Amino acid sequence: MELTDPRHLKIANWVVLTMLVATGFLWQGREFALGILAGGLVAVINFHLLHRTLRETLGRLGQVQEEDAPGRAKAFFAGRQLLRFFVLLTIIFLLVRYGWVNIFGLLVGLSTVVVTLILAGILAIFKLKNKEANHTHGTSHSVT
After folding, report:
1. pTM
2. What is the rounded CA–CA span in Å between residue 38 and residue 143?
3. Where are the domains of the chain?
4. Are residues 101 and 28 in contact, defined by beta-carbon separation less than 8 angstroms?
């Protein structure tokens, strides 16, 4: 399984979120776990929407042969990103303002995608090191 593939990253995000919620529940209890869940849902859904918006923008660039198409595609992407940012800001503000979740759990949950990307990077490093150690694969050049 190639974890750097967007589909696999999305699945890994859900797995990491599940593990964080379970660990948070066992460690700090229900409210902390709900904070992790809320933050994780915000982060994972945001990641999914970012991937979809980027794919749509690149698709528009590939379809249109007009001269001003790159400018319109950039404006489309920037507009969608700005809208998504303000929606996220509003959701996080409401969660914190009304005390619906544990703020520390929310912060842990918001880092779900970051944790997944770090784990993917570590896995890629291990794969690269194993390839280097195996003389039948890879190049003769050292990574270190």
Report:
1. 0.76
2. 40
3. 6-133
4. no
